[in-house]
């Protein structure tokens, strides 16, 4: 999972790119990078947070040009080496720079094809390099001296036939403009925005609308599944290939990953989380539970908890305080580090929970280790009973599209019964949202529920799953060492 940003403007964009990336920091904490284009590419990237990589005014002053790309990375495929950090750039057949969010599922086959058919030496394990070289190979087939807008869109359509998986992509093409596109299923988000300036309009593409709020851009619309949009050097906007509706948009964006103040597929993320919490009340009642209070696991579960409390007619309370200077524990390198961050991040308010039957709502349960620690915190603070409520159904399958859930053997619900999950985390009860209710909540705004159902919107065989599992196990060992480089998470 990553956050991406691209800006074309009648003024230098380096500062705006760095500022905009801070609004996407929740989407990746491994590395950050920016590339701008003037008469050449200017690039800076490194390990850690945006504020670590761009720590001094000199870091942004060097980013010259009126067009540029930014990226924050959480590695879900390949290594966590700084060498794999985005953006990536090549200089033939044009100067091309690219950022992407998602996961290519036919990585090995595509790598082999590029090497054999196009003599491309793939130097990293980042799949954006494969997308970049595939686009470059398609452009090489055109009349480079007279490359048209239709040629660019035709190259993207051909790329769709070769690259499988989920990907939202923004590309700088020297001498031509900025090209953005989403895979045909629209699994990962990509939005288009505009800002009027005294010198003419600025255009931007980004993963989430909150980025535009920071930068003063108006959200024009979301790119449709399979759509490509080109903003030319003179500010003309061209579009091609849009498919209708929300496609197979990832439900986990709404459940956890996106910020609650983001708008996705025409709806506010916070609003959908409240609806999910209201439907969760049905499962709490069916379990015969009558909590005294509802609390949330800050902060992605707040709106689900408030919806649950409202529907049950019992008080919502803030029972856990959050240290906002600690990053998201879901996307850190190792289990040891995740547990350390949870201890640093959350502290129970004893007077709120002591002697109470507490329904604690989290966005989901993946490995169960964080849930176990939260239950222990609440018991130590004097809670009489703890009911652990998940706003998502049981996660049973690996995500192959860019959210690094865990390996199948680490996913607790995939390997244990409900009662075994309850016993492991130490709760008096565990309540999951039902898949049917979740699909009802998100029926108009999401279409991929594969981590719950095992039904993938693209062809995913056992071989692909095996490769992804093996890569994650390798990456886990690498990230333990890499974490020291990315200090400040």
Give descriptors for this structure.
6-stranded antiparallel β-sheet; 2 domains; Glutamine Phosphoribosylpyrophosphate, subunit 1, domain 1; 7-stranded antiparallel β-sheet; disordered C terminus; 489 residues; globular; alpha+beta; Rossmann fold
What does this structure look like?
The protein is built from 18 helices and 21 strands. With 489 residues, it is an alpha+beta fold. The protein has two domains: 244 residues, Glutamine Phosphoribosylpyrophosphate, subunit 1, domain 1 (4-Layer Sandwich); 175 residues, Rossmann fold. The C terminus is likely disordered.
The computed structural class is: alpha+beta
CATH architecture of the largest domain: 4-Layer Sandwich
Q: On the 0-100 scale, what is the average pLDDT?
A: 90
Give the count of helical stretches: 18
Short description:
The protein is of the alpha+beta class. It has helices at residues 14-22, 50-53, 57-61, 107-118, 127-140, 149-160, 209-215, 251-257, 269-286, 302-312, 335-345, 350-353, 369-380, 412-415, 418-425, 435-441, 450-453, 462-485, and strands at residues 2-8, 31-37, 41-47, 67-73, 88-90, 96-104, 165-173, 177-182, 191-197, 200-206, 218-222, 228-232, 237-240, 263-264, 267-268, 293-296, 320-322, 346-348, 357-362, 385-390, 429-432. Helix 4 packs parallel to helix 5 (127-140) and helix 9 packs across helix 10 (302-312).
């Amino acid at each position: 999972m990553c956050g991406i940003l691209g800006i074309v403007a009648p003024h230098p964009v380096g500062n705006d790119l760095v500022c905009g990336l801070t609004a996407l920091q929740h989407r990746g904490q491994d590395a950050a990078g920016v590339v701008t284009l003037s008469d050449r590419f200017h690039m800076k990237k490194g390990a850690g947070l945006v504020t670590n990589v761009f720590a001094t005014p000199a870091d942004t002053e060097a980013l010259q040009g009126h067009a540029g790309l930014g990226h924050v990375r959480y590695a879900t495929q390949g290594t966590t080496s700084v060498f794999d950090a985005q953006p990536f750039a090549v200089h033939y057949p044009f100067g091309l720079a690219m950022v992407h969010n998602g996961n290519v599922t036919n990585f090995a086959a595509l790598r082999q094809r590029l090497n054999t058919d196009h003599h491309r030496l793939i130097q990293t394990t980042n799949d954006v390099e494969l997308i970049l070289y595939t686009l470059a190979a398609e452009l090489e087939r055109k009349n480079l001296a007279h490359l048209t807008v239709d040629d660019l869109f035709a190259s993207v359509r051909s790329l769709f036939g070769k690259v499988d998986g989920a990907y939202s992509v923004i590309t700088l093409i020297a001498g031509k403009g900025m090209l953005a596109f989403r895979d045909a299923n629209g699994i990962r988000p990509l939005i288009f925005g505009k800002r009027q300036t005294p010198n003419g309009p600025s255009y931007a593409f980004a993963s989430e609308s909150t980025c535009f709020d920071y930068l003063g851009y108006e959200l024009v619309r979301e790119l449709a599944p399979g759509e490509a949009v080109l903003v030319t050097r003179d500010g003309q906007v061209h579009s091609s290939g849009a498919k209708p509706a929300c496609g197979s948009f990832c439900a986990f964006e709404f459940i956890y990953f996106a910020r609650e103040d983001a708008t996705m597929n025409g709806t506010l993320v916070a609003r959908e989380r409240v609806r999910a919490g209201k439907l969760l009340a049905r499962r709490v009642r069916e379990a015969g539970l009558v909590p005294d209070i509802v609390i949330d696991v800050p902060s992605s579960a707040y709106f689900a908890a408030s919806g649950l409390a409202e529907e049950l007619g019992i008080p919502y309370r803030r029972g856990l305080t959050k240290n906002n200077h600690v990053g998201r524990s879901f996307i850190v390198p190792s289990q040891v580090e995740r547990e350390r961050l949870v201890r640093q991040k959350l502290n129970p308010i004893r007077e709120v929970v002591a002697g109470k039957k507490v329904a604690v709502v989290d966005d989901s349960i993946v490995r169960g280790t964080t849930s176990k620690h939260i239950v222990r915190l609440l018991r130590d603070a004097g809670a009489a009973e703890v009911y652990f409520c998940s706003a998502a159904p049981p996660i049973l399958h690996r995500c192959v599209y860019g959210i690094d859930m865990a390996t199948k053997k680490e996913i607790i619900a995939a390997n244990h019964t409900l009662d075994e999950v309850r016993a492991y985390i130490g709760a008096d009860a565990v309540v999951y949202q039902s898949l049917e209710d979740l699909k009802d909540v998100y029926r108009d705004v999401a279409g991929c529920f594969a981590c719950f159902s095992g039904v993938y919107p693209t062809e995913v065989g056992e071989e692909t799953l095996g490769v992804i599992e093996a890569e994650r196990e390798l990456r886990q060992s690498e990230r333990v060492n890499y974490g020291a480089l990315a200090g400040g998470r």
